[in-house]
Design a protein that fits this description.
The complex is a heterodimer of chains A (137) and B (404). Chain A is 50% helix and 10% strand. Chain A is mainly alpha-helical and 137 residues long. In chain A, helix 2 crosses helix 3 and helix 3 runs parallel beside helix 6 (119-136). In chain B, helix 3 (59-79) packs across helix 11. The chains are: A mainly alpha (137), B alpha/beta (404).
Chain lengths: 137, 404
């Protein structure tokens, strides 16, 4: 699913209940992260739930991320973040205005740093990996 | 008759809707809402009566100095302390405890001594002692709480000895709601010659403290939890002990004679209030304490106990809910988890229903871990909560269960 399909799907959901049920469904569909990555090394700090993020490089030069959380809604939100960023070049990752995408999904509040759900920190980490990847090229 | 609906009218924030729902505020354990008398008083001072204290020889300064010192007298009355000179204004309870550690601790503790705290402490009454222990080398002993969250008296007695120089314990656990037997702890500690510090952050909000009856040596609480402003806290210390202590921070307002090379220090409490204090906040705190006293601390306690019993009964009807902390006589703090649902996920749903609760380790990580959890949901009561708030919470928790 790409970003515009995701936005389209969310537009069909009127109530917060339906949105949250859909987010949980996306979380359930997200492939679980290999337990060998569930270590402090890949953990995003400062969250109220446990959040992990692992970057990798694709053969075509784009970046790919795997993520997981022990909280289901957070895992669903991670699935959304990964849909937005995966299979994308490092240069493009740094251009994406994720705040705008989340606003269009009606989920803007979840990106606020004060929510401490790890999403804001996760996005920062994705940008950091993109930066490291670009400098290494 | 405790008229909670009338009380709620004193708190304008309950007119504010949250996510288009009634404001179900169940996080007073983190910080309490403010009655209108507190905010009105503070606004009045800033707009009509403001100047610095202890400085000017002009009318505004003299009047606000009197109001600031009257605030100290109100705290004295609230605690039934012997003298207003035993009341030190600080930033919050955390600073009060740090003051005791840095000033009294550094002067009187040696590597041969022990400091005894409990497993129920939040970070503010744990980390300052760890850091000071690393500096001085005394023994830091931790007495146990039982699996139901009650205080393990036997373990306390076993760890209390002639080596114990200080017992520093919470009056009421911010996670478990357990009310510790503080009076018995003070007597036992005094029998072995130890001083006692009570962290009354939670306790002071929910019941009357008679400090002369309690006889503790230090007591700390925060203004923002007792319906007052942020940025103001209290350290009570017995006068002779305060007078034996060196300054904590240095600057204006705490000195007696100053030359370029030396200074002598003022008497307590001024000795511990360097610089311009939180003047308006101190007066706001006094207003909050007067508000609590006008409602009546015993009335608050009786009402909240009844509400606590109701909440425990209603929450226990929710299948899969596990309460953490079920000690006899516990206060209105309910930490829990629901099988198969992450606390963070529960909080997302509760927020949408206009309910404020806290999620995580509640600045008491070792305690939450000791009870067997990483993270828990905590609902906590204030004097304005109602059975409706509990019903809304329970309904939302049952609704949340349908999502997972």
């Amino acid at each position: 699913m790409n970003t515009s399909e995701l936005i389209e799907n969310f537009e069909f959901l009127d109530s917060w209940e339906d949105k949250y049920r859909y987010i949980i469904e996306l979380g359930e569909k997200l492939p679980p992260l290999d337990t060998k990555f569930k270590t402090d090394e890949w953990k995003i700090r400062g969250c109220q739930s446990q959040v992990w993020l692992v970057p990798s490089k694709q053969a075509d030069g784009t970046m790919n991320f795997s993520g997981d959380s022990d909280a289901m809604i957070v895992k669903g939100l991670i699935a959304i973040v990964l849909m937005i960023y995966n299979h994308t070049s490092a240069a493009r990752i740094k251009e994406i205005d994720i705040g705008d995408v989340f606003a269009r999904l009606g989920l803007k509040e979840h990106l606020s740093p004060s929510r401490r759900n790890g999403l804001e920190a996760m996005v920062e980490k994705i940008r950091y990996y993109a930066d490291v990847f670009q400098k290494g090229q | 008759m405790y008229d909670v609906e009338q009380i709620r009218k004193d708190f304008p924030i309950f007119d504010v809707r949250i996510n288009d729902k009634a404001n179900t505020f169940l996080d007073s354990g983190a910080s309490a809402q403010k009655p209108r008398c507190v905010t009105d008083k503070m606004r009045q001072i800033y707009t009509e009566e403001y100047a610095n204290v202890h400085r000017g020889s002009y009318r505004l300064s003299e009047e606000i100095t009197a109001a600031y010192e009257d605030a100290r007298k109100t705290v004295r009355q609230f605690l039934n302390a012997a003298s207003a000179a035993e009341i030190v204004f600080t930033r919050n309870a955390t600073e009060s405890i740090n003051l005791v550690a840095a000033s009294w601790g550094r002067k009187f503790l040696t590597s041969a001594d022990e400091v005894l705290i409990s497993e129920a402490e939040h970070h503010a009454n744990l980390v300052p002692w760890q850091v000071l222990r690393d500096e001085i080398g005394f023994g830091l002993k931790i007495c146990r709480v039982n699996d139901d969250g009650s205080f393990d008296w036997g373990d306390f007695c076993q760890k209390l000895s002639g080596k114990t120089k200080l017992v520093a314990v919470t009056g009421m656990s911010n996670v478990l709601g357990t009310i510790l037997p503080v009076k018995e702890i003070v007597s036992a500690a005094h029998r072995v010659g130890a001083k006692v510090l009570i962290d009354a952050c939670q306790l002071a909000v929910h019941q009357k403290i008679d400090i002369r009856d309690l006889d503790c040596d230090f007591l700390a609480f925060s203004g923002h939890k007792t319906y007052g402003p942020t940025g103001i806290g209290v350290l009570y210390g017995k006068y002779d002990i305060l007078d034996s202590m060196p300054p904590y921070q240095c600057g204006g307002d705490m000195v007696d004679v100053v030359t370029y090379q030396s200074a002598t220090f003022d008497v307590p409490p001024a000795r511990f209030e360097a610089g311009t204090p939180a003047i308006v906040q101190a007066i706001g705190l006094a207003e909050a304490l007067k508000y609590m006293m006008s409602v009546g601390l015993d009335n608050i306690k009786r009402y909240e106990d009844e509400l606590t019993t109701y909440a425990v009964a209603e929450l226990s009807k929710i299948a899969g809910l596990h309460m953490i902390g079920t000690a006899e006589g516990k206060g209105g703090i309910f930490s829990f988890i629901i099988d198969g649902i992450h606390p963070q996920d529960l909080a997302f749903i509760l927020d949408k229903e206009g309910i404020a609760v806290r999620v995580g380790h509640h600045c008491a990580a070792p305690l939450v871990h000791r009870m067997g959890y990483e993270s828990v949901v905590r609902a906590s009561l204030g004097l304005y909560n109602t059975k409706t708030d509990i019903d809304v919470l329970c309904k939302a928790l049952n609704k949340a269960k349908t999502f997972f």
